[in-house]
Write a structure and sequence with these properties.
The protein is an alpha/beta fold. It has one domain (2-146): Rossmann fold (3-Layer(aba) Sandwich). The protein is 26% helix and 23% strand. The chain has five helices and six strands, in the order βαβαββαβααβ. The chain has a six-stranded mixed sheet. Helix 1 links the parallel strand 1 and strand 2. Helix 1 crosses helix 5. The longest helix is centred in the middle third of the chain and has 12 residues, at 84-95. The chain is globular. The N and C termini lie far apart (32 Å).
Length: 151
């Protein structure tokens, strides 16, 4: 089973773009989709036995779509929220294993309360869905993907 997790708050502008994308994924066998406001260590129990997990989140660090493989971060103390790599570290600590994990970052610019995602973020939805479809198809050469603007 594969899991795709959309991260973000739909009430904070572009922060909710991960949820918009994941909510648009068609239902498929052996695929679980979920949306969360933030990643918490408690999710480790839900996803540790999956084959693969893909996190979809807004990013201020990229000018285009970016799909990258994640490695677990070493466990460092207690915390309520965590990054995808830190969540993998929790899984490794708690269960001795973690699934193959990826992060799809979508460019974001606006995180204002009560705002819908910006048109610039929304323009990436169809490309993000294409990227997820390739990921679900186990495309072997898909290690890092950037939009045409970055190419």
């Amino acid at each position: 089973m594969d899991i795709v997790i959309g991260i973000g708050n739909a009430l904070r502008g572009d922060d909710g773009i991960g949820q918009y994308v994941v909510d648009a994924i068609p239902t498929q066998p052996n695929l679980v989709t979920m949306t969360v406001h933030q990643l918490m260590p408690e999710l480790a129990e839900t996803i540790h036995q999956s084959r693969r997990v893909l996190f979809v989140d807004a990013s201020l660090s990229h000018d285009g779509l970016c799909l990258e493989r994640l490695e677990p971060l070493d466990h460092r103390g207690l915390g309520h929220t965590c990054s995808p790599a830190a969540l993998l570290g929790w899984m490794k600590l708690a269960f001795g294993q973690e699934p193959e994990a990826w992060l799809l970052s979508i460019p974001a610019t606006s995180f204002e309360f009560g705002e819908a995602p910006s048109p610039s973020a929304m323009q990436y939805i169809s490309k993000a869905l294409e990227c997820i479809e390739s990921w679900l198809s186990d495309c072997p050469d898909l290690v890092l993907m950037r939009s045409e603007e970055e190419a």
